[in-house]
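Hey, can you fold this one?
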Amino acid sequence: MNEELSDRIAAAREQLDAVRAEVAGVYIGTSVAVDHMLIALLARGHVLLEGVPGVAKTTLAKAFADALGVTVRRIQFTPDLLPSDITGTYVLSPKDGTFSFRRGPVFANVVLADELNRAPPKTQAALLEAMQEQQVTIEGDGYTLPSPFIVVATQNPIDLEGTYPLPEAQIDRFLIHLSIRYPKREHEIAMLRAHEVGAATASAILEERAVLAMQDLVRRVHVEDDLHEYAVGLSEHTRSDPRVLLGASPRATLGLVQASKAMAVLRGRGFVTPDDLRELAQPVLAHRLILRDDVAGDPAVREEVVRSALTRVSYRKAVRPV
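Sure. Predicted structure:
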């Protein structure tokens, strides 16, 4: 790694540490969730936060967005929400009789999609093109979304009343899935003490140019060919597991490598290690697996499949001729 790249990565790590600390002042919980959200941002991906109501999913998402110093829009998904309420629509000007495009809340750097699975599938699908292509198409006209662009969505477990399961195609668009569980005892006590003083808010630490520079930096992180083979091996193992109907796709393998490169920057390195892939395999791969009917009702099976892949697929450093 050359000195210029090393210095830039060191500077980026300091900024990311500052963001992490700022979010920690608002969201009292595990730092892993914040790290994984930063990884998704750097890797140009999206995040799905899942958990029962009241575990601070929205608090975490909002604090994360505020600390980035970019434009933020929040969409509260409800059963009566329309696709045009997300993407925007053409409106008629009464003065001259012409139509002009009124942009929807998706035109922001960070889109907080709160309780995404409370809207019907047609409305959920309004985000698909935006998440994959970073654009929306209205009446045949394409509109590019701003950069950086990340969707941070929250959802309640799909078996609760009034929710709609996300389609597999949309779940696959999320680079990282995080399960937000009940806090540890000490975290919940700290939360109660903090709220006696008043609800805290996160201040902007970064700005748009800084985020874009970090995303470009991730592209320069080095990945050995052996690690490419290791990532493919992990995905292939999920496809051969008898409990799985459809395993991790090539998009999932690519996402695992991209997320690992972002983790390297987060930890001040210009190269990916096998441990980066191992640590991110669960949040990147598990939610994309489609299970067979006899085990589909048990969400723990997806995690077991990925753990099996990590146990049985070994990383081998190839011996290359000198």
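The chain has two domains: 1-220, 221-322. Let me know if you want another pass with a different chain boundary.
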